[in-house]
Amino acid sequence: MNKGKTVKDYIRTIVDFPHEGILFRDVTTLFADPRGFRMAIDQMLHPYAGEQIDKVVGLEARGFILGGAIAHQLTLGFVPIRKKGKLPGATLSQSYTLEYGEAVVEIHDDAIQPGEKILLVDDLLATGGTAEAGIKLIERLGGEIVGCAFIVDLPELGGRKLLEEMGMDVHVLCEFEGL
Ligand SMILES: O=P(O)(O)OC[C@H]1O[C@H](OP(=O)(O)OP(=O)(O)O)[C@H](O)[C@@H]1O
Ligand SMILES: Nc1ncnc2[nH]cnc12
């Protein structure tokens, strides 16, 4: 049964996806379980109880699932940061480095007002490149980031250190060693 299980216990590892040598930490098994999903949302929010938050921002794609649930729980609005070319309105763009080459993420330029307090969420922190790009977009719009919450950190890839060096409060629920 589910008794005594932690968030980490619900996450499945797929070997050699999407490339040979990668241990893919698959949170769909966590999302699919009602107790696991609720536990993850509650734990992601826990450090921010009593803090003023105006909006939740989620990173495509699994950050949308978490961000939607968190925004609903807090009765807040949700703002997506999407991969290039998906948002219909006027956007700000930010490029970031991938393992091979570059990618671009975007936010609607009217999605955050200066001074709004933002909680940034995603499922997983690896190199931190995606979150760093998201932070830059939020800050370019004048948003003030209260915290960055993730389910998984892969400490060997240095994302947490990168975000903390940017002055972010980083909250993760579990770590996996091994890439
Ligand atoms: O810390 P980083 O090295 O930037 O990696 C973390 C990002 O990688 C994964 O998303 P992915 O880019 O696979 O996109 P997807 O969620 O749209 O599949 C994950 O959901 C994070 O968003
Ligand atoms: N090992 C991994 N598992 C799941 N998502 C990832 N994104 C980057 N590295 C990942």
From TrEMBL:
Molecular-function GO term, any one: glycosyltransferase activity
Keyword vocabulary terms for this entry: Cytoplasm, Glycosyltransferase, Purine salvage, Transferase
Keyword Transferase: yes
UniProt enzyme class: transferase
SUPFAM superfamilies according to UniProt: PRTase-like
Main location, first listed in the record: cytoplasm
InterPro entries according to UniProt: Ade_phspho_trans, PRTase-like, PRTase_dom, UPRTase/APRTase
Metabolic or biological pathway: Purine metabolism; AMP biosynthesis via salvage pathway; AMP from adenine: step 1/1
Domain of life: Bacteria
Reactions performed catalytically: AMP + diphosphate = 5-phospho-alpha-D-ribose 1-diphosphate + adenine
The enzyme's E.C. designation: 2.4.2.7
Keyword Transmembrane helix: no
Protein role: Catalyzes a salvage reaction resulting in the formation of AMP, that is energically less costly than de novo synthesis.
PANTHER family: ADENINE PHOSPHORIBOSYLTRANSFERASE
Family affiliation: Belongs to the purine/pyrimidine phosphoribosyltransferase family.
Subunit organization: Homodimer.
Protein name from the UniProt record: Adenine phosphoribosyltransferase
Species name: Aliiroseovarius zhejiangensis
